[in-house]
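Running this now, will post back.
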Amino acid sequence: MSEISRAVRAYLATEHDRAIVAHTPEEMLTALGRVARAGSPEAVLRDYVGLHLATAPRLTARGYVGRQFSSVLPAAAALDALTAMAPQPASFFEVGPLPNAADKLIQREFQALLGWPEEAGRMITTTGGSLANLTALLAARNTRVGGSWKAGLAASGRRSAVALGADAHYSLDRAIGVLGLGTDQIVRLPLDARRRICPEGARRALDRARAEGLEVFCLVASAGSTSTGAIDPLADLAQLCAERGIWCHVDGAHAGAFLVSDRLRPRLAGIERVDSFCIDAHKTLFVPASCTLLFYRDRQAAGAAFAQKAAYVFSDPGGEIDVFESGGVNFECTKRPAILNLWLAWAMYGRGLFERKLDHLVQMTVLAAAMLRSQPDFTVHNDPDANILCFSHCPPGLPQAGRGAFQTELHAALLRDGRFFLSKTVLDGEPVLRLVVMNHALTRADLAALIDGIRRIAAQQISPPPLSLAI
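Update: finished.
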């Protein structure tokens, strides 16, 4: 353990000049095989630690702007070792008293920010936003489509459906397929110019769905879409759902954590009115993966997701422990106590640490948009609501028809170079570059270096296709 600790400290103290090191699958298979043949257990461990640190993305590098995860607070990371050696599984109080208590304490912090009475809502933790979305849709289905848990969807005689924004996370399509609702029956809601769900367009789409015989029981909005970070107009959508008796869920995995910031919280106006929403703490609350907070506005609604009895684990219904623990209201039985990472960081540093970091990330993203817009060879594709910015690099002479393919080639070249790590996505059928600001140490100078680096790599490693002239 001391050797691992020394290696990690040295890794964190290093000023990395490369954000990522690209590898092939075959190289990784070979490297792991070499480690396995290192000899003694001590040698295997030593070599693996070195390999792990050599192949991990450098989250503290100034050129790391690629994915929605950041370096974590050291105390939160160290806690993982403690909870592995002295486990407290989080779903049941008798073996995990501390994570169940921490759930309630973090819930109280967020309820105060939401303006919810303490007795009204319920928060549970899940392992990732995909599972949180699935759990919320299950609660919505069981609440709005009566008898579906026992008798199945066919017994209702209805064509039940879910409505999603066009940029919704892929996990929602998966959840709808898992629940047997049929992905062909998803009602796709139109977006406005800022890639947010258009309330009037949503109203018309719901009307068309009803005319086609679909009964939409749940509408899912985004607080920070994965592609662009767009935050849907939550107050308008919550009102629309209330008018029609539709469950409103918000996938807030990316930007739901803006609740902790006085400056950013107004961007989530209306989230306090929805039926459920989730936040990925391992994205924007800077704790180890995976830790997702799933909130229900109605405390009783949390119990609608599941209707089971298992005397060997579940406490007596309605008792003090049953109300306190989460095993009966989430999928997982033996669950990692990830909430302790967040509680410990919150207890040590308070809400202000998270607020300052989030404010800085969004400020840097807005600055990046302004800097790129001032350059004639860059095109910005979204006004950032959060810490995500999509753009294209279009050198002089690059034909319009080849711009999308050029972004894909440029992304691959950047990955090979390693000094700057961006991601990519597709907007309206065209590949674009995607910048995700997660490093709290990022500065204007780093953004300027990124812009220069993109130009340099594009010029050195990719030759734009020649401009064809029609004769």
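The mean pLDDT is 91. More later if anyone needs it.
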